[in-house]
């Protein structure tokens, strides 16, 4: 692993190794408490964040490293100077770059020119740290990931893409249910269907929530992603039949619920379910830190 831009870049074995390391870290940081001593990681955000910013910062600290937060007060990435020059400069000072960007292309350019590892902490196309944390969380509750059936419901987006890639590589079943016109990217779907076939998994897409019957876990994300200024109220009518609520939980028989957050309670998920016994949502948020630390340890170990 040189960079971590998408779960596409890693094999099934590497996904499982990272999850195992994430679980080990969760139990005990002591053996790794100086692993990043003397190392500095720049965390760059073009978009807002709570979970990602805090979990990287505190996570890096737990490994003995130092993190430096850069926001966009000096203008968007590539505006004041080229992404290439940005990458070349940063590489002279820091040991790794974590970046949340509007365009996935910016990450590819950072990775092309940086001489230090680059980690994707969300782009328009993928959210791989999220997908890894989600499968770590699923593995804590459903154990054999190849036997898990994950039901994603809502808007087909960056998070959906990373989940589909991870599910396909792990040989899991994934059902993606979206309103008409909101399916995930066609090229990513095709690639995941291919990957699923290769690994003994399955990827199904539908506009009907009835397709979710029998899944183990229901997963929601926001109906409007960062960068899209459409008010939630405007899409409410279209998405409301796709809300995760007690009725959908009962109808599907799912035994766990995930949401990457930030959540809009009573929109994509009811408060009753978010705070209910099937919700793994705050474990999932905690696991962001452990899996990201596993990723950083793996990238920076030499
Ligand atoms: N899930 C997630 O990435 O949350 P933040 O946008 O708060 O970082
Ligand atoms: N799909 C959401 C994920 C937020 C963590 C977004 O891109 O805003």
From TrEMBL:
Domain Aspartate/ornithine carbamoyltransferase carbamoyl-P binding: 3-140
Binding residues annotated for L-ornithine, in chain numbering: 158, 221, 225-226
One Pfam entry name: OTCace_N
One cellular-component annotation, GO: cytoplasm
Superkingdom classification of source: Bacteria
Domain Aspartate/ornithine carbamoyltransferase Asp/Orn-binding per the UniProt entry, residue ranges: 148-298
Enzyme class: transferase
Reactions it catalyzes: carbamoyl phosphate + L-ornithine = L-citrulline + phosphate + H(+)
GO biological process, alphabetically ordered: citrulline biosynthetic process; L-arginine biosynthetic process via ornithine
Compartments reported by the entry: Cytoplasm
Assigned EC number: 2.1.3.3
Pathway(s) annotated for this protein in UniProt: Amino-acid biosynthesis; L-arginine biosynthesis; L-arginine from L-ornithine and carbamoyl phosphate: step 1/3
Family the entry assigns: Belongs to the aspartate/ornithine carbamoyltransferase superfamily. OTCase family.
Protein name (Swiss-Prot/TrEMBL): Ornithine carbamoyltransferase
């Amino acid at each position: 692993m040189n960079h971590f831009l998408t779960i596409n870049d890693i094999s099934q074995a590497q996904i499982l190794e990272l999850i195992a390391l994430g679980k080990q870290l969760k139990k005990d940081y002591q053996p790794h408490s100086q692993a990043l001593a003397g190392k500095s990681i720049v965390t760059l955000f073009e978009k807002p964040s709570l979970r990602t910013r805090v979990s990287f910062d505190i996570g890096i600290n737990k490994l003995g490293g130092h993190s430096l937060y850069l926001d966009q007060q000096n203008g968007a990435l590539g505006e004041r100077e080229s992404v290439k020059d940005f990458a070349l400069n940063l590489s002279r000072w820091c040991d790794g770059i974590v970046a949340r960007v509007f365009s996935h292309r910016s990450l590819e350019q950072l990775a092309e020119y940086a001489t230090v590892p680059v980690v994707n902490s969300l782009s328009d196309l993928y959210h791989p740290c999220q997908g890894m944390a989600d499968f770590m969380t699923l593995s804590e509750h459903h154990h054999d990931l190849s036997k898990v059936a994950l039901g994603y419901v809502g808007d087909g987006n960056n998070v959906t893409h990373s989940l589909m890639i991870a599910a396909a590589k792990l040989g899991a079943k994934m059902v993606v249910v979206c309103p008409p016109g909101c399916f995930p990217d066609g090229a990513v779907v095709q690639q995941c269907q291919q990957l699923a076939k290769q690994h003994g998994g399955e990827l199904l897409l539908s506009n009907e929530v009835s397709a979710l019957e029998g899944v183990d876990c229901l997963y929601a994300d926001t109906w409007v992603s960062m960068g899209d200024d459409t008010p939630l109220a405007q899409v409410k009518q279209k998405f409301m039949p796709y809300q995760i609520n007690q009725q959908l939980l009962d109808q599907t028989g799912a035994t766990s619920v995930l949401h990457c957050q930030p959540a809009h309670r009573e929109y994509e998920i009811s408060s009753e379910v978010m705070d209910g016994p099937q919700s793994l949502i705050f474990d999932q948020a905690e696991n962001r830190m452990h899996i990201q630390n596993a990723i950083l340890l793996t990238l920076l170990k030499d």
